[in-house]
From TrEMBL:
Source species of the chain: Culex pipiens
Protein name: Leucine-rich repeat-containing G-protein coupled receptor 4
PROSITE patterns for the chain: LRR (PS51450)
Regions crossing the membrane: none
Keywords: Leucine-rich repeat, Receptor, Repeat
Length: 233
């Protein structure tokens, strides 16, 4: 659906829908119908410049084939994960360049996720352990958010994570003491205000690609921590 003034669409309960993909562009749609589960064969939802402000995952619950939700350049300011959410095939949640002020509560309910892209939003604080339970997560992108603080109140356990990006945030400190990310290959912290990364030495696998460009690094710290790391500008 392209460039329409429709603010809703209706699904008929007696119709057996064969729809596999929904693409919404320049639409006034503010919410998904509560009976989206009728689209049993749906595997892809994409949107671009849609009026949607709240992405209510419970309205999508039961679409067992849904694999990808990709809605860039939108107005989404919250993602609701209240109650039970049955999306066993959802691997990609990509919401770059929206208006999210925080990472949604209940992310662990989307247990099949492999890719999360929340870049270019308005997130200022992150509790890293909020992603615990996402055992298949391979890529997490929070770049270009006004992040000033990353906390780890509990041990961060993401056994499949390979790529993590905090590029061009506002970080002036980062402590990875409680991060257990044994498969991580790339950590991008370029474009911040970091002097060092606390407790980095020996924390990750040997050969980690660490993107360090445009920071305020302590040169002695960089030299002391280079063993086992591959620095990238």
């Amino acid at each position: 659906l392209f460039s329409t003034n429709y603010d809703q669409f209706v699904l008929e309960p007696n119709v057996e829908y064969q729809l596999e993909k929904i693409s919404l562009y320049d639409m006034q749609l503010e919410e998904f119908p509560k009976d989206m589960h009728l689209l049993r064969k749906l595997n892809l939802i994409t949107g671009h410049r849609v009026a949607l402000k709240t992405l209510d995952m419970s309205s999508l619950s039961g679409i067992t084939n849904l694999k990808i939700i990709k809605v860039p350049e939108g107005n989404i300011s919250s993602v609701r994960l209240s109650g039970s959410v049955n999306l066993p095939s959802l691997t990609n949640l990509e919401l770059p360049n929206n208006k999210l002020g925080e990472v949604p509560d209940g992310m662990h309910k989307l247990s099949a996720l492999e890719v999360i892209d929340l870049s270019l939003n308005r997130i200022t604080f992150l509790e890293m352990s909020c992603f615990n339970g996402l055992e298949h997560l391979q890529k997490l992108d929070l770049s270009y958010n006004p992040l000033t603080r990353i906390s780890s109140l509990a041990t961060v356990k993401l056994p499949s994570l390979e790529t993590l990006s905090f590029m061009a945030c506002h970080l002036d400190q980062l402590n990875v003491l409680h991060w257990e990310l044994s498969t991580m290959k790339v950590l991008n912290v370029g474009g911040n205000n970091l002097h060092q990364i606390e407790n980095l030495q020996g924390r990750f696998r040997e050969g980690l690609e660490l993107h360090v460009g445009i920071n305020n690094w302590d040169c002695q710290w960089l030299e002391e921590n280079k063993i086992g790391l591959l620095y990238k500008g």
